[in-house]
Amino acid sequence: MKRWMGAALAAVAGGMVAVPSWTGPQAVARAAGSPMQVVGFWANDAVSGLSGLYKYPKSITWFTPFWYSVKANGHLVDRTVPSIKKEVMAKHIPVTPLVNDMTGTQAFLKSPSTLTNAARNIADMVKANHYAGVSIDFEPQHVSVAPELSHFMVELRDFLPKGSVITLSVVPHSGGAYQWSALNPEVNQYVLMSYDQHDDGSYAGPVAATPWVQNIVTRMEKTVPPSKIDLGVALYGYEWPKGSTHAVTIPYNAVTPTMHKNAKWDSADQETYATFRSTSMGPVNVWWESLQGMNQKIQLAKQDHLAGIALWHMGYANDSVYQLLLHQVGTQP
């Protein structure tokens, strides 16, 4: 889906130089035979899916709400929802809030003082709220900030409480923006944003065709150990008017009876789609990640011995998604 910074996964570009430096924090790496970890993202635009989380609190490993943003001066914007924070912590679900770049240009990374200020403020936020760690989602688009991003991660690790989890979201087509040999020792896990192969701005097609996702995973495994990779899984789809590149997001918990009635499974792309006439849009094409498609991604993660999966986002889930997680991922003790 189009995320808050509008980053679309269009293609996987070259430039990821293999650097087999796989040392660093391993506290969250998955041991053979142990349950896969599940990062459950959440954004403030949807709350209905959280009723299932409260019902099945062992279905995810970390609750990762989009609550904070970094300004150009390194200060944080706080969008915490106290009622949700209280409920999640009462269910003993570890929280690793997402922090994104409010500027969209990583402006705070370009000055040593604002870089340090941002790292210190994020660490202070984690300490003050007793969070299990933090999820960084800066989504750099340019190679020019790669050294600064690495420097930031070193400072963040130093400021954070011992044992804190650092998660870094990775946009695959920005390969040159990541210095893997410097990042791997500091980052516990990477969220591979393996969705939005097609989205608003493209013609109709799968949100994340399994062969396309496999190619992205294979490329990333050349620079990052599989035990540090969480595979991004979409809990949504898109609806396009026939012949148009403008798409509307369809959360999984808002899939309509008409979509279900006309649903077909694409065996090559391993995703669900439907074509029908909408009363408001005329002929439409819809592609979405059904439970069958979600399960295919889980099996891919297992096959490649990845650390786990990362779901965008839990506000789009219903009880069937949580039940799938408990059955297939094995987070329930």
Automatic annotation (TrEMBL):
A Pfam family of this chain: Glyco_hydro_18
Keyword list, A-Z:
Hydrolase, Signal
Matching SUPFAM superfamilies: (Trans)glycosidases (SSF51445)
> What GO MF annotations does this protein's record show?
chitin binding; hydrolase activity
InterPro entries attached to this UniProt entry: Chitinase_II/V-like_cat, Chitinase_insertion_sf, GH, Glyco_hydro18_cat
Secretion signal, residue range per the UniProt entry: 1-18
Q: Which residues form the GH18 domain?
A: 36-333
A single GO BP term for this record reads: carbohydrate metabolic process
Which PANTHER family did the record assign? CHITINASE DOMAIN-CONTAINING PROTEIN 1 (PTHR46066:SF2), CHITINASE DOMAIN-CONTAINING PROTEIN 1 FAMILY MEMBER (PTHR46066)
Q: What is this protein called?
A: Glycoside hydrolase
Which organism encodes this protein? Sulfobacillus harzensis
